[in-house]
Amino acid sequence: MSHFLAAGLVVAVGITTSALAHAQEAEPDAAGDPAATSAEPAAAPVTVPAAAGADASASTAVEDGARFRFGVAGGMGFFTAASEVGTAKVSCTYYGVDLRFGAQINNMFGVYAQPTLGYYTVNGGGALAAGGLIGMAAIVDATFADRFFVGAGLGYTVYNNPAGLTPLLRVGGYPLMSRSETKARRKGLMLGMDLRFTSLEGLKTIVMPTFNIGYEAF
């Protein structure tokens, strides 16, 4: 009987020892599984600085639009006044100033009035004496690449006493020009030429080129 009890105790101790050994081996695996199966943290989204810079540039861009236009210039020119009958004629030298005020519709197109005041000297005797000149014209012009302009208009010019309608052409440029960073505005030095065609009673059409230098805000 005692032999059976001793054999049973040995078997029980063996089973218990084996169970404890298996439990100790399983604990590290159970502790290690969460680390092995845990997901890595998601990568943070990458921002694109270039896009932010583009938005900033767009927000600071100056919008084109209508604005007041102003200019002033002085110049000199010449013309010949010839009688419609006979060979009488005189050559004259002109000196004068003109203003320009109106609207610059956008960076390309402008419309403005151009009053002119000047005088001329006669280089030889003839049908037209020395005297003053006054005129007014309405002009439309176009500016290209912020530097060059071409314009055309119609006016009325008084040469001392005779007067008549005057078609007018303008061409020139802005060799020195600056642009505002806060509003639609350009300004600078203007170099240009005006060409006037005036029909006067008793005289052949007067063709008068003038060469001008001045200031323009447009």
Would you give the CATH topology of the largest domain? Porin
Give me the side-by-side strand order of the main sheet.
1-2-3-4-5-6-7-8
Number of strands: 8
> In the CATH hierarchy, what is the class of the largest domain?
Mainly Beta
SSE sequence, one letter per element: HHEEEEEEEE
Number of helices: 2
Average pLDDT value? 81
Q: Total domains, how many? A: 2
Strand-residue fraction? over 45%
Report on the structure:
The protein is α+β, with helices and mostly antiparallel strands and 218 residues long. The chain has 2 domains: 32 residues; 151 residues, Porin, CATH 2.40.160.20. Helices cover 22% and strands 52% of the residues. The protein has an 8-stranded antiparallel β-barrel with strand order 1-2-3-4-5-6-7-8. The protein starts with a helix and ends with a strand.
Which properties best describe this structure?
single chain, 218 residues, alpha+beta, Porin, 8-stranded antiparallel beta barrel, 2 helices, disordered N terminus
The gist of it:
The chain has 218 residues and is an alpha+beta fold. It has helices at 2-37, 49-60, and strands at residues 67-82, 89-104, 109-122, 131-144, 148-159, 163-179, 186-198, 206-217. It has two helices and eight strands; from the N terminus they run ααββββββββ.
